[in-house]
């Protein structure tokens, strides 16, 4: 006897397949189908599996940060018109999700704000301090949005990368790199241009500086950490793309 399916069996299989597909589609297209900060630990674990499988300690730090500060990040993301996934990418690069991280230059917290920047933002935002995680996140996001406004003439992707570069190196450095770009007849609003002119702020290009600036020096002074900034932009962009795929 040939093993096969009778008509009733075929109909049963078809119904089962259709039911499975309908349940799958409901899960894919419901408004909150993606991973959200309010979901259970199982959803956050999925985030760890995808993004932090290669580094368990980083995954645990990210997990705790998302649980503690996720709602805050999303709330301020709406207020400052930022993608909350971009903020997560910056925190990952800046501090590896460590709330008390301190750099060798004195930058502090999840978003690694320099002391001078902290003081400026405390005054602008009217907050008591900018070191505790909640205020550090708020101040960092406000600062990023402020930088983003400076590059309104750039296309979206270039604008984002220019803003990230300014967050890392300081706005003045990027404005200086743009001045060199203009002097060389290049597009100052293109990140591809700026990542090439940023190294030209080094002291070894003093002859060029004399031609670009009357004071014979970049307005923010010579800059020797261009590769660090270029790497920073590339890393944050890569993390951001990962979060966009998963979240």
For the biggest sheet, the summary is: none
Helix content: 55-70%
| Rg (CA only) | 24 Å
Structural class: mainly alpha
Strand content: under 5%
**How far apart are the first and last residues' alpha carbons, in Å?**
52 Å
Roughly what is the average pLDDT, rounded to an integer? 82
CATH class value of the largest domain:
Mainly Alpha
Number of strands: 0
Number of helices: 11
| Uncertain regions spanning at least 5 consecutive residues | 1-48
CATH topology of the largest domain: Lysozyme
- Shape assignment: globular
Q: What is the architecture of the largest domain at the second tier of CATH? A: Orthogonal Bundle
N-to-C SSE series? HHHHHHHHHHH
Protein model, in words:
There is one protein chain. With 247 residues, this protein is mostly helical. The chain has two domains: 36-150, Lysozyme (Orthogonal Bundle); 155-242, no CATH class. Helix content is 65%, strand content 0%. The chain is built from eleven helices and no strands. It has helices spanning 7-29, 41-51, 56-79, 84-95, 115-125, 133-150, 156-169, 171-183, 191-197, 206-212, 226-246. α4 crosses α11 (226-246), α5 (115-125) crosses α6 (133-150) and α7 crosses α11. It is globular, with a radius of gyration of 24 Å. 31% of the residues are buried. Mean pLDDT is 82; it is low at 1-48.
């Amino acid at each position: 006897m040939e093993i096969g399916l009778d008509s009733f069996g075929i109909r049963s299989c078809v119904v089962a397949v259709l039911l499975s597909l309908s349940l799958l589609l409901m899960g894919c297209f419901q408004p909150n189908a993606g991973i959200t900060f309010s979901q259970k630990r199982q959803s956050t674990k999925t985030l760890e599996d995808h993004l932090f499988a290669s580094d368990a300690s980083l995954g645990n730090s990210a997990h705790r940060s998302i649980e503690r500060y996720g709602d805050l990040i999303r709330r301020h993301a709406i207020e400052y018109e930022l993608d909350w996934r971009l903020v997560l990418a910056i925190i990952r690069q800046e501090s590896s999700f460590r709330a008390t991280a301190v750099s060798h230059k004195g930058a502090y917290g999840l978003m690694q704000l320099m002391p001078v920047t902290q003081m400026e933002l405390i005054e602008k935002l009217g907050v008591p301090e900018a070191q505790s995680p909640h205020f550090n996140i708020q101040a960092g996001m406000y600062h990023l949005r402020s930088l983003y406004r400076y590059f309104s003439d750039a296309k979206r992707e270039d604008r984002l990368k220019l803003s990230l570069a300014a967050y890392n190196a300081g706005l003045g450095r990027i404005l200086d790199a743009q001045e060199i770009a203009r002097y060389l007849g290049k597009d100052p609003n293109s990140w591809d241009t700026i990542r090439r002119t940023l190294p030209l702020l080094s002291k070894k290009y003093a002859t060029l500086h004399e031609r670009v600036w009357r004071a014979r020096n970049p307005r923010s002074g010579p800059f020797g950490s261009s590769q660090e900034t270029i790497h920073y932009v590339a890393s944050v962009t890569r993390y951001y793309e990962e979060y966009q795929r998963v979240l």
